[in-house]
Amino acid sequence: MNRFLSTLGLCRRAGKLAYGFDEVCSQMKKGSAYGVFTASDLSEKTFKEVRFFCEKHTVPLIKTDVTMNEISAVLTAKTGIIAILDKGLFDSLSNLYKNTDNIDLKGNC
Questions:
Q1: Among residues 60, 80, 70, which one has the least CA distance to residue 9?
Q2: Which portions of the chain are predicted below pLDDT 50?
């Protein structure tokens, strides 16, 4: 299992994770989401909608290289959208993607 998925499992066990479009958007509205990650195989339409909400609420958005099936193996729920609700855990996860072009810490991707 890669480091991203391992840390994602840690976030889930710590209760610092929201997943699914509606829940992630709700956490962004509350100001609880420190960052959002999407699966590599998320539909383009859904990605655009998530990007819109991230821009609106100034939440960083990162498109990962993991698939929804890989995420579902860790979370036991099929999803392609994940919000991290802890700054330290988000920093750990985002550092795995800091050298890629798919991150914008202003909420734009």
A1: 70
A2: 1, 103, 105-109
CATH number at residue 20: 3.30.1330.30
Looking at residue 85, what DSSP letter applies? -
What is the count of structural domains for the chain? 1
Name the DSSP letter for residue 100. S
d(CA 33, CA 76): 21
39 secondary structure, DSSP code:
-
| pLDDT, position 107 | 45
Query: Which backbone phi and psi does 51 adopt, to 5 degrees?
Result: -60, -40
pLDDT at residue number 103: 47
pTM: 0.87
